[in-house]
Design goal:
Blueprint: E1 14-19, E2 24-27, E3 30-32, H1 39-50, E4 54-59, E5 71-74, H2 78-88, E6 93-96, E7 103-105, E8 125-127, H3 131-136, E9 145-152, H4 156-167, E10 171-176, E11 192-193, E12 195-199, E13 202-205, E14 209-210, H5 211-226
Parallel strand pairs: 1-4, 1-6, 4-5, 6-9, 9-10
Antiparallel strand pairs: 2-3, 7-8, 10-12, 11-14, 12-13
Bound molecules: cytidine-5'-triphosphate (CTP) and calcium ion.
Length: 230
């Protein structure tokens, strides 16, 4: 006889995760992007699913397989990501791991821009919506636990603490994405991460670990914070 399967610590919960970069079109063949691989966000979605949660992963363009047992909502732009997040709510917890492009082209050219021997085009930018701040500051839609990320290249903990307050999230997972971080191959695109967890009670410095181990540890903390199902 098989032993009964233990329900995971997130059984009965809906967990929303954003992951990857966004691509912001300039014209039909060009876009603004960043170096995010999506590895950390995807690892969090996978770990939450292993812990028994129903997981929705809203992800920008990545070269990763869909994590097992996760509902994936692929998007391209920040505005599409916000719409997909809004459509996926309500959730018990949301982890905003995506590297959302801060700016997009103010006007998207309908046809490929040509050199035409003329002046070099000026690229006018406009700000994208802040998905995390939008959801965290909306009491009607806010998941009980909202976790943001902060990728910094200097003053990592200081900037991340300011970000936690400004964005209205419960926790911030902060990491150093500078080439000086000491992570072999770099954090962005690499398989390891060294993070600082900033909560309402202070800062925890986690050791360098695989993105998968960081995800497991974060998911365990999320399950503990949510507590048992009513
Ligand atoms: N974020 C978001 N929508 C945006 C920008 C950021 O949801 N338009 C989220 C990210 O997913 C992350 C957190 O906000 O969880 C912090 O992102 P970050 O880029 O570090 O913060 P910014 O406020 O954009 O500040 P800056 O890039 O100037 O450091
Ligand atoms: Ca940003």
């Amino acid at each position: 006889r098989l032993a009964p399967v233990e329900p995971g610590p997130l059984a009965g919960r809906h967990v929303l995760v954003t992951s990857g970069p966004t691509h912001e079109p300039i014209d039909p063949v060009r876009y603004i992007a960043n170096r995010s691989s999506g590895k950390q966000g995807h690892a969090i979605a996978a770990a939450a699913a292993r812990a028994g949660a129903r997981v929705t992963l809203v992800c920008g363009p990545v070269n990763l397989p869909d994590p097992a047992g996760v509902t994936v909502r692929p998007v391209e732009t920040a505005r599409q990501m916000l719409a997909a997040v809004e459509a996926a709510l309500p959730a018990d917890a949301a982890i905003f791991a995506a590297a959302v492009a801060d700016w997009r082209a103010a006007r998207e050219a309908g046809e490929k821009m040509k050199k035409d021997g003329g002046a070099i085009p000026a690229l006018a930018l406009t700000e994208n919506p802040d998905i995390l701040a939008t959801i965290a500051h909306d009491p009607a839609r806010r998941p009980r636990l909202v976790v943001g990320f902060a990728a910094e290249t200097e003053n990592v903990v200081g900037y991340a603490q300011a970000k936690r307050a400004r964005k209205g999230c419960d926790w911030i997972v902060a990491n150093d994405v500078s080439p000086r971080s000491g992570i072999v191959g770099g954090v962005m695109g690499g398989d390891e991460n060294q993070v600082h967890l900033i909560t309402e009670t202070g800062v925890e410095h986690w050791p360098t670990a695989s993105k998968s181990d960081v995800a497991e540890r974060l998911v365990a903390r999320i399950a503990a914070a949510l507590g048992p199902l009513e």
